[in-house]
Write a structure and sequence with these properties.
The chain is built from five helices and six strands; from the N terminus they run E-E-E-E-H-E-E-H-H-H-H. It is α+β, with helices and mostly antiparallel strands. The protein has one domain.
């Protein structure tokens, strides 16, 4: 592993973990950061919408709440779906719903992850009821 981002370790071999794009997983003790390699139109859109955040005393660019929700829906693991629900519930009044719906449809069309738009709608409805 190579050292990077101060104390993060970056594996020498980069594995593709999501069908939409290649990813790099950096590790720091028992914490991980997933880094998109930016090869798809969605990744490029997410990169344009990035936000600054401080993580472990490092200032980094991170995905917007909307893009993070979409990445969580792409991963579609139990924990990711719970995270997406929490984000939408916390930010339900300020989330960009047309953006979310547009990219959910695009992701489904280009990756075959046809469950993404329906799950997004389900999570938005649950957030509205919360």
């Amino acid at each position: 592993m190579r050292s990077g981002l101060r104390s993060f370790a970056i594996p020498d071999r980069i594995a593709t973990t999501f069908p939409i794009d290649g990813w790099l997983r950096a590790a720091w003790n028992d914490r991980f950061a997933d880094i998109a390699l930016g090869r798809t139109p969605f990744d490029r859109s997410a990169a344009q919408r990035k936000k600054r955040a401080t993580v472990l005393e490092q200032t980094l660019w991170v995905a917007s709440a909307e893009d993070l929700v979409l990445y969580k829906l792409i991963a579609y693991r139990y924990r990711d779906l719970a995270d997406a629900q929490a984000i939408l519930t916390r930010r339900r009044l300020v989330v960009d719903r047309p953006y979310l719906r547009h990219w959910a449809d695009e992701i489904a069309a280009h990756t075959g992850k046809f469950e993404v738009p329906a799950k997004l709608q389900e999570l938005l409805e649950a957030a509205d009821r919360a």
